[in-house]
Amino acid sequence: MDHQRSVAHKLGALLGDRRGDLEVTHRASDRHALSALVADAVRRPAEVAGTAAKSAGGSRARRRVDLLNVAVAGLAAVAVATTAVVGAVQAATASPADDALQALAADEKTIASAEATLADARQQIAGDVAEADARAEALRAALPPVATAPNPADIPPGETEVPDAAGRIDIIDPAALEKVSASIDTYRGELAGIALPPLPEPYEHSTVDDDSLVDVGAAIDRAQQHLADVDRLTAELRETRAQLRDHEAAFAAQLGVFAGSFRTAAEKVIAEHPDATSKYKDAVTTAVGAVAAADLRTDSGRQTLAQYRDAVFALVGSQVYANRVREEQRQREERERAESEQEQRPSVPGGRPSPTQPPPEEPKPTEPEPSQSPTGPGDGGGTGAEGASR
Q1: SS3 letters for the chain?
Q2: By CB neighbour count within 10 A (0-12 exposed, 13-18 middle, 19+ buried), where does 102 fall?
Q3: Which of 3, 245, 322, 341 has the smallest C-beta neighbourhood within 10 Å, fewest atoms?
Q4: Measured CA distances, 279 to 95, 182, 193 (Å)
């Protein structure tokens, strides 16, 4: 008896109070219907006897026993007793660990799904960190080639190669370039500092004694502990992802400030080259708008930097061309004025020209306007592919 009470106590602690289930089982049986049948069989003989007495005019009638009703009542009582015994036997012979085994199976199914989700999330975050670092590295490498360009004034007219002694013009403001370079280095350091939590050891199903509450309970405890570990690592991954998003947002804001500096630089370069052709000024305005709207972490965004460099180079080249044309015009006017003055001087006897008269000079050809890009073939004042690499 003590052993049965102990088993019942363990089962109640593990599975909860099952009296509600027993009540449902009792309600689902035919015990009440059979009891009603018994009561009805007992009641009917009394009703029959009363009716017979009334019909005899109040005389006392001899009581008769209805053997059929007695037989029915006896059978009904036996059926009720049999039903109660069967229900008790079923409840006693059911395995106490069945419900616990079902709970264990549900936990193990949840563990399999949670482990797969955790592994996918960790792999996704690791890929995001690597991609962010690669983009930052590509931007860092793309800045020096677009920060400056050859000075068109140091490229001789008609030449397609940039001389070694040619100077450089600033395309990107040096202070802004230094600041964004430091921001990139800091950002990459933050990415390198992101540590992903290790995955837990895969859960392994352990064989248990299906009829042992102790074995099944211990297996459920192990499954619950593994689920708790998976939940903890999932929370850590959420924090890591949030940390990555914060770093990305801060870096994107710094790149926005850097891109905004191009507009001020573009306005300055246009104002410093007033004689450049208007189409080159418009090209610079369009290019700086593309830089401001681009995500410089992408390939297309970095390409806008090269386009802006080419536009500024063409603008400066157009100003250099205008300066050279103006200089040629001044020199031509000086020669014409000198020739006119010489003609007005009296010549020496013998028709010889005056010793002070300078010899005539050959006119210099007028050079065409430069190309738009320091990397494309020149059409007079620009540079070719060789100039772009210097």
Answers
A1: CHHHHHHHHHHHHHHCCCHHHHHHHHHHCCHHHHHHHHHHHHHHHHHHHHHHHHHCCCCCCCCCCCHHHHHHHHHHHHHHHHHHHHHHHHHHHCCCCHHHHHHHHHHHHHHHHHHHHHHHHHHHHHHHHHHHHHHHHHHHHHHHHHHEEECHHHCCCCCCCCCCCCCEEECCCHHHHHHHHHHHHHHHHHHHCCCCCCCCCCCCCCCCCCCCHHHHHHHHHHHHHHHHHHHHHHHHHHHHHHHHHHHHHHHHHHHHHHHHHHHHHHHHHHHHCCCCCHHHHHHHHHHHHHHHHCCCCCHHHHHHHHHHHHHHHHHHHHHHHHHHHHHHHHHHHHHHHHHHHHHHCCCCCCCCCCCCCCCCCCCCCCCCCCCCCCCCCCCCCCCCHHHHCC
A2: exposed
A3: 3
A4: 91, 35, 48
> CA 163 → CA 154, 311, 356, distances in Å?
8, 21, 39
Q: Mean pLDDT across the chain, nearest whole number?
A: 75
Give the pLDDT of residue 359.
56
The answer to whether 153 touches 221, Cβ cutoff 8 Å, is no
The label of the residue with tokens 């708790």 reads 228
d(CA 185, CA 294): 21
% the chain with pLDDT above 90: 46
Q: Give 310's pLDDT tier (boundaries 50, 70, 90).
A: very high
Q: What is the pTM of this model?
A: 0.61
Measured CA to CA, the distance from residue 241 to residue 258 in angstroms comes to: 26
How far is Cα 255 from Cα 385, in angstroms, rounded to an integer?
A: 30
| pLDDT higher than 80, residue 136 | yes
Q: Which of 369, 173, 168 is nearest to 268 (CA)?
A: 173
Range among 102-116, 125-139, 322-336 with highest mean pLDDT value: 125-139
Chain segment 15-48, per-residue pLDDT in tens: 444 444 434 333 434 434 333 433 443 344 444 4
Q: What are phi and psi of 130, to 5 degrees?
A: -65, -40
Q: Residue 206: its pLDDT value, please?
A: 73
